[in-house]
Amino acid sequence: MTTFPSRDGGIPTRQAGLSLLDVATGAYLALPVLAFCMWFKPVFAMGLAAMLCYGFHRAMSGADWRRLDLPIPVLAALALLALAWVSLGGAGHFFYANHDWLTRDAVLRDLSLTGWPPSYETSQAAPLILRAPLGYYLPASLAGAAWGIHFANMALYVWTSLGFFLVLAGAVSLFETSRQRILCTALLLLFGGLDLPGQVMLWRTVPELGQHLEWWSGFAQYSSNSTLLYWVPNHALPA
Fold it and tell me: Which 3 state secondary structure label does DSSP give 144?
């Protein structure tokens, strides 16, 4: 097994080839696609599922399942941090949930409690089929279909936290020292780009504490990582 050389000549922790962390990340992305196969007729569903499983097996072949890329205490700390940080953004509804969660909760509810794919009767001959970015919700909706919508809500919080944990772990694993890893984590959580200078230069005002700065330009935004996690986790985490 070869390793990536470190700048200071020390022994790096990130080795070439796939690790258990890489396998977990691949599985996180593949599981919703596998669940989506259930929307099709059984023959097509089994064929699509078989191709997906084969592709995943081929992509992950040769991975070292014993290699984590990070020490267990670091992974545990990142897991706790992910659970805490995600809880502030609406998933699980522990604290304030922005208005985008109204749509998100409705999608989760329909996926959990109606037939697959969810459809809506209209005056037309054919019903309307739910069309939305569904992958993020599918693992939680399976739990909701089995144990109820309240369980689905908690499952979505766990699923979101797991995705954010994998993002944090994947980024932190690129660094070697504790100082570098702490700085990387802080930047991922807290860095907000150039919103503050943009707000001051364009509007000639210093923002109030807690003011939402992402729309300072008026027509577009370049969202921070935490803003993306709290407003569009279904798009942010896979990206």
Answer: helix
Residue whose entry in the numeric block shows the structure tokens 């749509």? 103
pLDDT value for 3: 47
Q: How many CB atoms lie within 10 A of CB 198?
A: 15
Around Cβ 151, how many Cβ atoms within 10 Å? 15
Which pLDDT belongs to residue 53?
Answer: 93
pLDDT(231) > 70: yes
| pTM of the predicted structure, to 2 decimals | 0.85
pLDDT, position 166: 96
Q: End-to-end alpha-carbon separation of the chain, Å?
A: 29
Decide if 158 contacts 150 (C-beta within 8 A).
Answer: no
**Which residues does 169 contact at the CB level (< 8 Å), separation at least 6?**
21, 69, 70, 75, 78
Distances from the Cα of 217 to the Cα of 174, 185, 190, 199, 212, angstroms: 33, 27, 20, 8, 12
Average confidence (pLDDT) over 84-110: 92
